[in-house]
Amino acid sequence: MVDPALAETMPPKLTAHTGMDALTHAIEAYVSTLHCPFTDPLATQAIMMVDQYLLASFGGDKSAREQMHYAQCLAGMAFSNALLGITHSMAHKTGPAYSTGHIPHGCANAIYLPFVIRFNAKDEATTARYALIARHLGLEGDSDAALVEALCMKIDQYNTALNIPHTLQEFGIVESEFLEKLDRVAELAVGDACTLANPRKITPAEMAKLLKAAYYGSPVDF
Predict the structure, then answer these.
(1) Domain for residue 221, yes or no?
(2) For 24-64, what is each residue's pLDDT tens digit?
């Protein structure tokens, strides 16, 4: 059982960031190149629990916070075996990169996740797996592509409700510094260990484009 004192005192911002980190763990594990019949049920259960309990947890509901702890554990069990993807690669390398302040890990994941989903969904098999996630969440769409977009919009809705920025620019990263460091940060992100299990391969040039999309909120059309 979760310590009631911990559930009561955990700040809302930390609740939001760690909750979106758990969601990212589960989604990335589900589409990882190393996913398997053992990790898939853990990931999908975690995703559904986050959807059910995160916003109430953010609002201070102690029972919901307990359930979020369990969801985070399930997501951790999934990614410990299936590994992660480039959402985490980007978060790892951009978190401490800018002079305007550290980007908290869960916040960075929440910003990047919709952009990464749209990038990975250029792969047909990965699109089908994202569409399965959307169906688990009860989202609607007349095609797998529509379901993927519904999933991205759902994540955007989480971020809005949790007061998480939708782009790096909105977070407050200075444009000139972002552009100055872009190529080096992209190179480091591609070299991150999490990149290895991402379902779609990515080059440093593509990573730079993806980071720019996440900075400006522009379409992922490559």
Answers:
(1) no
(2) 999 999 999 999 999 999 999 999 999 999 999 999 999 99
DSSP string, 99-140: TT----HHHHHHHHHHHHHHHHTTSHHHHHHHHHHHHHTT--
**What is the rounded distance in angstroms from the CA atom of residue 157 to the CA atom of residue 143?**
21
Cα distance between residue 147 and residue 130, in whole Å: 8
CATH of the domain at 116: 1.20.1090.10
For residue range 154-196, list pLDDT tens digits in order. 999 999 999 999 999 999 999 999 999 999 999 999 999 999 9
Count: domains in the chain: 1
**Model pTM?**
0.95
In the chain, DSSP finds a helix count (H) and a strand count (E) of 11, 0
Q: How far is CA 190 from CA 15, 80, 96, 201, 218, in A?
A: 29, 20, 16, 9, 20
Task: Quote the CA–CA distance of 181 and 198 in Å, as a whole number.
Answer: 23
Domain ranges, residue 200 = 4-216
Residue 119 lies in a domain: yes
Q: Which helix (H) or strand (E) holds 4?
A: helix 4-9
Residue 222 lies in a domain: no
Task: Provide the residue type at 64 as one letter.
Answer: A
